[in-house]
């Protein structure tokens, strides 16, 4: 989901009334950053409060990557998730939705601090279904898990979002008399943009708009569960996205709003995300915050409010954002934001492609979703994001403003890089087909017409929303950069 994919952020045809209500009832952030431009690394950072470079989850190479469907690696066991930390304070912990930090049992949510889990172990396009029917021997039909058990394969995506909402609401009801944390990670809005019958062809934005509306409806259902439990005023809610829109998917990929580019890039459109924080009775409604915050701030914020000390044996990159909840003039707690493209592979293939310090953002290397080859900039490109959020007008390297800003950025870069400790590259461990999730390796004996690992043959015939949109000619894309 991109910055521009919510109606509260200005999209003219997508309708997200429940998220709009959440935003109007709390704080809407205009400078909220993900930790990375694609999903596995950004999720690792949110859960641990640490940049993904510190956990070895920035990709096998210098241009990044995610965990595959038969990945050998995953979120390292020596990392501490907010679920593990909050359990020490007596919190019940639940996760619903997309995980994507390793599908092996040792890496699944219930082995990373969550008491229970219901969801997909990775993206909805990384296994075949009636919505995205293909064959890949290393990618079995899309599995649905409860804790560590496959309960459906392939998954019926047409009913999945409502099942997510129902499970999340049930978790709330079961734990309403105790402290709890719920991590709700929707599989929307991601290709193949599945939807239920209720939302099929209902949005003028097309299938993407249908999916966004269905997700928004599920958000409304989950917030109603808090109301029904009588605990809404005692519940802090965050909403954000893991990365920007997937522009190579054209109309199916979303919008970054005013920002340039999207997923797989370190431009603003790849990492600046919608950000909403809501806490009735504590956070005044109707606020718009322009301070720089990041998804990995969720970890220290949660721990601070729960009275749990931060781990002292590691660098925590996130900052406690809770002072902003009661004092809108609180300055950003980040001097600089470090924007990685991947894992460094030597001086000519750096992983750190951009840094923002104050209003200035330097790009050392760039690419875009059409011209994916890396372009090194010497001297670096420099933009003043508060004057030029679209990153169109780079400052002249000959000017005093450029020189002063780059001195600050380069000093911060040196300090940051000195804080890094080499760790095993989790994506670099590759894939092993024997590690794929399969409900029954001998399923062909029962269901010879279907792919192996089929235990729910009826789902190959499940309902699917028709009338997909035509895709635009990619030549219409204009690159201002």
Strands, helices and their partners?
Layout: H1 17-24, E1 27-33, H2 39-48, H3 82-87, E2 92-97, E3 116-119, E4 144-146, E5 149-152, H4 160-174, E6 180-185, H5 207-229, E7 237-240, H6 268-271, E8 272-278, E9 287-289, E10 293-294, H7 298-306, H8 323-326, E11 336-340, E12 352-357, E13 360-366, E14 375-384, H9 400-418, H10 443-446
Parallel strand pairs: 1-9, 1-10, 2-3, 2-6
Antiparallel strand pairs: 1-8, 3-4, 4-5, 7-8, 11-12, 12-13, 13-14
Helix pairs in contact: 4-5
Task: Tell me what the structure shows.
The protein has about 475 residues and is of the alpha/beta class. The two termini are about 25 Å apart. It is built from ten helices and 14 strands. α4 packs parallel to α5. The longest helix is centred in the middle third of the chain and has 23 residues. The strands form three sheets. Strands 1, 7, 8, 9 and 10 form a five-stranded mixed β-sheet that branches. A five-stranded mixed β-sheet has the order 5-4-3-2-6. β4 and β5 form a beta hairpin.
Features:
single chain, 481 residues, 10 helices, 5-stranded mixed sheet, alpha/beta, disordered C terminus
């Amino acid at each position: 989901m991109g910055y521009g994919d919510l109606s509260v952020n200005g999209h003219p045809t997508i309708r997200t009334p429940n998220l709009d209500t959440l935003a109007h009832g709390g704080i809407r952030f205009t400078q909220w950053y993900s930790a990375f431009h694609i999903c596995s690394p950004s999720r690792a950072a949110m859960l641990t409060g640490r940049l993904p470079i510190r956990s070895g989850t920035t990709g096998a190479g210098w241009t990044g990557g995610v965990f595959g469907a038969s990945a050998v690696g995953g979120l390292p066991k020596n990392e501490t998730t907010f679920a593990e930390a909050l359990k020490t304070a007596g919190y019940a912990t639940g996760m619903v939705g997309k995980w994507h930090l390793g599908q092996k049992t040792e890496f699944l949510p219930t082995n990373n601090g969550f008491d229970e889990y219901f969801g997909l172990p990775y993206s909805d396009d990384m296994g075949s279904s009636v919505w995205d029917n293909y064959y890949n021997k290393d990618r079995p039909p899309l599995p649905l898990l409860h804790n560590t058990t496959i309960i459906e394969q392939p998954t019926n995506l047409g009913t999945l979002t409502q099942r997510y909402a129902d499970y999340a609401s049930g978790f709330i009801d079961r734990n309403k008399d105790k402290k709890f944390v719920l991590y709700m990670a929707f599989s929307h809005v991601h290709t193949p943009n599945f939807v239920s019958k209720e939302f099929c062809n209902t949005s003028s934005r097309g299938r993407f708009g249908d999916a966004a509306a269905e997700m928004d409806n599920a958000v409304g259902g989950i917030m109603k569960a808090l109301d029904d439990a009588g605990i809404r005023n005692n519940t802090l809610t965050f909403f954000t996205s893991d990365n920007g829109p997937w522009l190579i998917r054209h109309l199916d990929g979303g919008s970054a709003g005013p920002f340039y580019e999207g997923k797989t890039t370190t431009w603003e459109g790849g990492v600046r995300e919608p950000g909403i924080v809501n806490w009735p009775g504590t956070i005044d409604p109707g606020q718009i915050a322009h301070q720089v915050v990041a998804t990995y701030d969720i970890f220290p914020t949660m721990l601070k409010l729960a009275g749990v000390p931060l781990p002292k044996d590691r660098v925590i990159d996130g900052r406690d954002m809770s002072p902003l909840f009661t004092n809108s003039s609180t300055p950003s707690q980040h001097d600089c934001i470090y924007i990685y493209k991947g894992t460094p592979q030597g001086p000519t293939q750096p992983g750190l492609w951009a840094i923002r310090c104050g209003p200035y953002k330097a790009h050392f290397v760039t690419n875009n979703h059409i011209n994916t080859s890396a372009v090194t900039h010497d001297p670096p490109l420099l933009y003043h994001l508060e004057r030029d959020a679209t990153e169109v007008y780079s400052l002249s390297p000959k000017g005093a403003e450029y020189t002063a800003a780059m001195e600050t950025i380069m000093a911060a870069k040196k300090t940051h890089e000195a804080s890094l400790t080499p760790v095993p590259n989790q994506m670099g461990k590759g894939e092993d087909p024997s590690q794929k999730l399969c409900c029954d390796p001998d399923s062909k004996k029962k269901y010879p017409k279907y792919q192996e690992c089929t235990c729910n043959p009826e789902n190959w015939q499940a309902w699917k929303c028709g009338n997909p949109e035509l895709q635009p000619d990619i030549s219409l894309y204009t690159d201002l950069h």
